[in-house]
Predict the structure.
Amino acid sequence: MSETRTDANAPSDSLRPSSVALAQVGLPPAEYAEIERRLGRVPNRVELGMFGALWSE
């Protein structure tokens, strides 16, 4: 029997926010990619809001 393993920490496209959600917190796609790179995972909604507020200054 073959078992397929996946990385549990790998970001799922279903977890990534839409471009509309990013626009609502003022994050362009390039900044979102940087956030994901720094965290090493997909940020949650609270984190997106915090980054949007902090990086808008």
Notes: The CA atoms of residues 16 and 24 lie 14 Å apart.
